[in-house]
Amino acid sequence: MLMKDCMNSRLLLDCAKSCILASSPVFRRQQFLIRCLEVSIDHRPHSRDMQALRSIEVDSESVIRAITPALDPTRHKGQAGNIAVIGGCREYTGAPYFAAISALKIGADLSHVFCTKDAAPVIKSYSPELIVHPVLEESYNVGEENKRSITSKVLAEVDKWMERFNCLVVGPGLGRDPFLLDCVSELMRHARQSSIPIVIDGDGLFLVTNNLDLVRGYPLAVLTPNVNEYKRLVQKVLSSEVNDVDAPQQLLSLAKKIGGVTILRKGNSDLVSDGDTVKSVNIYGSPRRCGGQGDILSGSVAVFLSWARQHILAADSNSNLSCKNPTVLGCIAGSAILRKAASLAFLKKKRSTVTGDIIECLGQSLEDISPAS
Ligand SMILES: NC(=O)C1=CN([C@@H]2O[C@H](COP(=O)(O)OP(=O)(O)OC[C@H]3O[C@@H](n4cnc5c(N)ncnc54)[C@H](OP(=O)(O)O)[C@@H]3O)[C@@H](O)[C@H]2O)[C@@H](O)CC1
Ligand SMILES: Nc1ncnc2c1ncn2[C@@H]1O[C@H](COP(=O)(O)OP(=O)(O)OP(=O)(O)O)[C@@H](O)[C@H]1O
Ligand SMILES: [Mg+2]
């Protein structure tokens, strides 16, 4: 008992000493100097990274101005873009909606969503602007004996539309049901046969990372991984860990190893590579990391990619853009427009900014760079 009391008083004494010490100006000054030293040590590699990133930074606003089509009265519906999002299941209805509505808000004429039967009425209720096809099925709804016939039915339904699409976005809110993913793999093979560009995001990246042949060597494939998705991709393809010290070089190797697909690595700076070149988009975005910004990005990339393809065909190689790969141009423009919209939304809404607020700023963001008239 005596010993316990003694220990307690010693503890109290130590505690009192540290309190006095913590309030002493000399101690606080020492702590301040230690913190400064830590910051400057941390800062050195970081500033080197920033220099490397600045050297590959692209003038994204010029890219947007070059590829955004004029609002020409002779054009008809569909010519400014007909996009299809493949995604939306029992759990996720927001993600496909964000991607599809972003495509429209940027300037596409038509935006479709191919989703499961459960998700369709919900997505339709968010917006009458979207054309929603309740065609996909998840395992829980399908008996083993019906799987083959249902797959054929799904493919036939989507194939009816396929040739009209300028770009597919595969994955926002798709989920990971194995039967559904098998159907989507088939859809991707069909799109590839018809040379339709495919932007792959979210659960589409889960699918592709486990089945790289779906995109290997397809120059019209764009992968848009976030931090987790990128880590899985690097581990699978390069059998290594993510290297943040030489991020551009690693991204270049990754894109090359998958046969020249384009990869947009999302993060503090967005990095884009097709295996030949690496570009970075650093324009100021938002400190809010609310879910759904990647979905806006995938819909935006789809539209700009379609416009970049049209621009390159029409310009007949007279374009003054140094990069001629429409998938890279689409990524640069999509990233820049999203980041600018996120910063505009944050100015208004601060900490309460949500994805819908950013979508509302897409129009202003594009207008500031490439005015409609
Ligand atoms: N409002 C909406 O509707 C929004 C919907 N969204 C949609 O959400 C989906 C997932 O995208 P995300 O960005 O959460 O994936 P990410 O950061 O890799 O994973 C985080 C952690 O979760 C886990 N995990 C994920 N999915 C899993 C699954 N099906 N089953 C089991 N585990 C799963 C994952 O585990 P791991 O992959 O490491 O095994 C990791 O630990 C995608 O369809 C996206 O479009 C978003 O776009 C946001 C707005
Ligand atoms: N740390 C960051 N600082 C600034 N911007 C960022 C940062 N991380 C991501 N972003 C921006 O947010 C966009 C979306 O990236 P994010 O990593 O949130 O995607 P995601 O996780 O797939 O989103 P989602 O919730 O839609 O699935 C990127 O294009 C990027 O411009
Ligand atoms: Mg995502």
Automatic annotation (TrEMBL):
Q: Name one GO molecular function term.
A: ATP binding
Cofactor(s) essential for the protein:
Mg(2+)
Keywords attached to this Swiss-Prot or TrEMBL record, sorted alphabetically, are: ATP-binding, Lyase, NAD, NADP, Nucleotide-binding, Phosphoprotein
Residues covered by the YjeF C-terminal domain: 60-369
Annotated PROSITE patterns: YJEF_C_3
Q: Which InterPro entries match?
A: CARKD, Ribokinase-like
Where along the sequence do coiled-coil regions lie?
A: none
Catalysis: reaction(s): (6S)-NADHX + ATP = ADP + phosphate + NADH + H(+); (6S)-NADPHX + ATP = ADP + phosphate + NADPH + H(+)
Task: Describe the task this protein carries out.
Answer: Catalyzes the dehydration of the S-form of NAD(P)HX at the expense of ATP, which is converted to ADP. Together with NAD(P)HX epimerase, which catalyzes the epimerization of the S- and R-forms, the enzyme allows the repair of both epimers of NAD(P)HX, a damaged form of NAD(P)H that is a result of enzymatic or heat-dependent hydration.
Name recorded for this polypeptide: ATP-dependent (S)-NAD(P)H-hydrate dehydratase
Q: Which source organism does the UniProt entry give? A: Vigna angularis var. angularis
| Top-level taxonomy | Eukaryota, Viridiplantae, Streptophyta, Embryophyta, Tracheophyta
